[in-house]
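FAQ
Q: What does a multi-component entry look like?
A: The components come first, one per line:
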Amino acid sequence: MAKHFHKELEKLKKRILSLGAMVEDRVRMAIKAIENRDVTIADKIINTDYEIDEMEVEIEEECLKVLALHQPVAVDLRFITAVIKINNDLERIADEAVNIARGVKYIAKGEKLHFDFDFYSMAEKTEAMLKKSLDALVNLDVDLAFKVCILDDEVDKINGEAHRIVKDVIKDNPDHVEYFINLLLISRHLERIADHATNIAEEVIYLIEGEIVRHGRLET
Amino acid sequence: MAKHFHKELEKLKKRILSLGAMVEDRVRMAIKAIENRDVTIADKIINTDYEIDEMEVEIEEECLKVLALHQPVAVDLRFITAVIKINNDLERIADEAVNIARGVKYIAKGEKLHFDFDFYSMAEKTEAMLKKSLDALVNLDVDLAFKVCILDDEVDKINGEAHRIVKDVIKDNPDHVEYFINLLLISRHLERIADHATNIAEEVIYLIEGEIVRHGRLET
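Then the predicted structure of the entire assembly, as tokens:
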């Protein structure tokens, strides 16, 4: 029985990591779509989102099955609760990739306008946060998970900067409001992906240390 | 033992509903703050958000304790999993109320500018969705929960409309970009509250009917 249970836990771990890899891929595609204003990639992200949705539902059903059949306690119980929540965050990250793809489809329609903002550094940081949070989960690496939480502040700052730049650039280009608002929204979607990666990292810390680090308890 | 367990389930139900009532109150305050550009209310929302955060952490810890101690199965297990997820949605709704409060503080700084958008109808619909989703949870009312899911489409449409109006109004008032972008963001925060209320309604449906209705399975 115990052996069977641990097999199921291993299976669950594999599945959440494979969902993580798929979602990481969508984020990478979304960033590529921004860089190259690539509508084909954007469409691919939008049209295959159902795969992520289906996988999320399956993983949650699997978690409930394992909880009901094996009634785990202590660290195993905590692991399954973490999987339920991380599963949810991953699905929402994929939704943000879809939102970015929709924004890209809009901005790709017109001419490319100058926008003095380092999008790619923000995108790179966000992608790195997601990668690190999943690596922290695979290796139960609490130090790496803490690094993700710190990086989140940097991404928040860059998003604030995008906000200020958009304000000025629209003043000079009132005819291209929609274009620049779409860029601003893309920056916010990246920021939300960073937030979800932080949630994942916090779940990993909780899983390892048994403390809830959410809501700024980190600093105390 | 069974009696003790059911007492704990009742306690959990009371706590999630009392968090729900607190969060509903924050949303109502946020809407009032928008209507009256009331910085005092906005500050109150921002400064008391830690209460919601603390309560969320306590409820999650309580859920894990009940899972570990009583190892519930079937509908009880499903109920506790639903509480874990609804708890999370409620906390994020409160975060959106904080985001709205920050937006209000910005727009309250300057003169009131004309913006031809029915904010209040959107706010009312969103508030009604949250109320209905919590009522559906209290009374395990699946019909009411379905109504919330349908209302969500209406709120999405209104948000799309806000987007179009902002675009035009900024063209005519390029000097007030930040003001109108803040209004647009407030509309998006309301839309996110509606999304979370939909998540809660879907959890209630799942709890009652044992089916996952997320990701459009509703229509099939």
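Q: Is there any commentary attached?
A: Sometimes. For this entry: Chain A has a mean pLDDT of 89.
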